[in-house]
Amino acid sequence: MPDRQPSMETLEARARRRESRRDFFTHVAGAAAIGATALAASAQAQTSPSPTPTATFTEADVLNFALNLEYLEANFYSFAATGAALAAADTGGNVGTAGAATGGRAVSFQDPLVAQYAREIAADELAHVRFLRSQFSDTTRAAQPAIDLSVSPTSAFSVAARAAGLIQAGQSFDPYASDENFLLGAFIFEDVGVTAYKGAAPLISNKVFVEAAAGILAVEAYHAAIIRSVLYRKGLATPSLRLIEATTAISDARDTLDGKTATTDAVRGIAAEDDQGIAPTTTSDGTVSNIVPLNENGIAYSRTAGQTLNIVYLNAAAVSSGGFFPAGVNGNIKTSAASA
């Protein structure tokens, strides 16, 4: 959103800008169907508005999938804010192979605002982990899988940064080295978390979990807006850091991973090449920021479970492990989409 007064002229400029954005494409979210009767759904991205389901997942499957993503985010922020991974009491389970989150460390924050945000988000993500874990019995809860949060040249962060052109072959990207690097690492996770929760929204039928999922989605969106806003402000204040350009590069790299679908549907806000950085856009009405990545209808976009796994596995193919989850996620929803 623009940095100054929210005038009607500014809002109209935003609407005109959105009308010129890329078409949005529909897909059927493949996370699973949530409901008392375990609705059928596909875990892979689909190219038809009415696909034939390829797998049937239960409510527990879907919640365990979300729990895997929360383990990833919570550990990253816990490392950055405190220097430690999640405690064992918050990671155990009997579904899947238990693993450790490794390679992270505390950030020596220079900006007290960023430090406060890191601590707040760490607490929020831990609360999400504990809430989701509380929905299971000891025998049905997914264990935390192995999570790579390290900084070597072959680490997930470095592979992602290299794909975005932020570093060269053989170099490392360290999200704990500075406030700015931390924000870029957070930018990867928060945007993906928002789109993953929104992608599952149309398939949720259990009213209790509709409200709970909407609540988690709202928190993830607040987090994403904080990260995007701070990156934008720092990018404007110190252009030499090229933070705004870095977000565009990361979003473009994510777009190459999560593939295309066949049918446009701007009303649902679901797209193929939909990811957006924070680069401002110049229109006939002036320059406007892009803190909130929306389509022409002002609707945020979505990803399927398969597309989400494409990004966290850092692979455009249909695979069951890689990237931030070197041994894969735990549970029945674990294969990424075969991107077109």
Automatic annotation (TrEMBL):
It comes from the Bacteria. SUPFAM superfamilies: Ferritin-like. This is Ferritin-like domain-containing protein. It comes from Sphingomonas citri.
